């Protein structure tokens, strides 16, 4: 039985023009496997290229001090905002206003890996373009070029390039966002997963 979300709690937002500044979002614990330093390096690259953006990070964790040091070292104090843990309502507000959700997950130094991150499911259900990585179970959810984008682990330049492409080319994202919503509804809705499990158990009991 897959981990999933209740898609009824995530109202689908129609595609909207990319804002100025660009509103980037990550919702994650600040741990190695979440790839936050890849995101920060991508932000450094984007700033060097002249892009105007705000990167909101919701979550806390053991890497917070190092993240703050990296933000200062890269001169991103006006671009990156660490909000810490937030309530579901605040998270929903950030999902509503964000242009791009990024989660460049990676295999941690201790071998820790993702499953299929719930935060990606939530962003896709909400109608936000997502960028993640070819890591663990993520490609089961995000299909590169179809319902989101995937880059290699620790590929900050690749992450920056995808963001720049979205901003510069202004593609019609409606088909991609609709495909993302369908993917979550069909394969990662916890209510459907629960119903399927009940049917399976019931079938075995009556076999």
TrEMBL record:
Record keyword Glycosyltransferase present: yes
GO biological process: carbohydrate derivative metabolic process
InterPro entries tied to this protein: Glyco_trans_1
One Pfam family, short name: Glycos_transf_1
Gene Ontology molecular functions: glycosyltransferase activity
Residues of the Glycosyl transferase family domain: 19-181
Keywords: Glycosyltransferase, Transferase
UniProt family annotation: Belongs to the glycosyltransferase group 1 family. Glycosyltransferase 4 subfamily.
Protein name: Glycosyl transferase family 1 domain-containing protein
Natural source organism: Mixta gaviniae
Lineage of the organism: Bacteria, Pseudomonadati, Pseudomonadota, Gammaproteobacteria, Enterobacterales
